[in-house]
Amino acid sequence: AQTVTQSQPEMSVQEAETVTLSCTYDTSENNYYLFWYKQPPSRQMILVIRQEAYKQQNATENRFSVNFQKAAKSFSLKISDSQLGDTAMYFCAFMSDDDKIIFGKGTRLHILP
Amino acid sequence: ETGVTQTPRHLVMGMTNKKSLKCEQHLGHNAMYWYKQSAKKPLELMFVYNFKEQTENNSVPSRFSPECPNSSHLFLHLHTLQPEDSALYLCASSQVGTLGVENEQYFGPGTRLTVT
Fold first, then answer.
1. Which of A37, A77, B101, B116 has the highest CB neighbour number within 10 Å of its CB?
2. A44: distance to nearest CA of chain B, Å?
3. What are B93-108's pLDDT values in tens digits?
C-alpha cells in the first residue's frame, strides 16, 4: 500500500530564510503524481506545486521548488526568501494513476518576523 | 494505517438518490473535516467540526448535509446531487488544542463518488 510520510510536524524559520519541508513516500507504481498543498489559517487548500513522476526535471513555481528523488522516493519542498504569508500547514500528497490520493499528516510552518 | 476509515470506498448514485458517506476516526481526535477533491479543482475544504460543533461551512450547497453525532463519527448526507458533484470525498481528523491550534491532520482513504 502507498504511504506518505512527513517527518516534521512543525518548523519555524525567520522571514527571508530558505526552508525545506521533507516528504517521503512508498509505492510500487512507476507512474504517479506528487503534490504540495498549503493550508493557511483561512483553511482553504491551495495547490502549491505538482510533479509528474515521469518527469525528471524538478517542478518550480516562483519561490517554491521541489527536490524530487524518484529512486529514493523523496519529494521535498523548498521555499526560498520565505514570507510571513507562507505561514501555514503544508501537506504532501501522492496520487496514483487511478486517481487514488494519499496525504501526509502535514507540517506546520511558522515564518517569524 | 487504519486511524481514519471511510465507507463506502466507491459509490455510484443517480441524481434523485439519497445516500450517505461515513467517516470514523479511531485516534481520539476532537476535530473532523470533509474535503472534496475533483479533477477540476484542488482540494476544497467543505465542513469542519470541532467537538461535534460545526465551525466552518465553506459555501457548500445544501444538497450536502453533514452530521457529526459524536467526535468519532462524521457523515455526509447526499441528496439530489449533480453530475459535477462527482469527485473524491476525503475525511480527515486532528486534535485541536485549547488555544484552537490544530495539529496534524490524518486523512482517510476517500470515497470516490460518481453521480449519473
1. A77
2. 6
3. 988 876 666 778 888 8
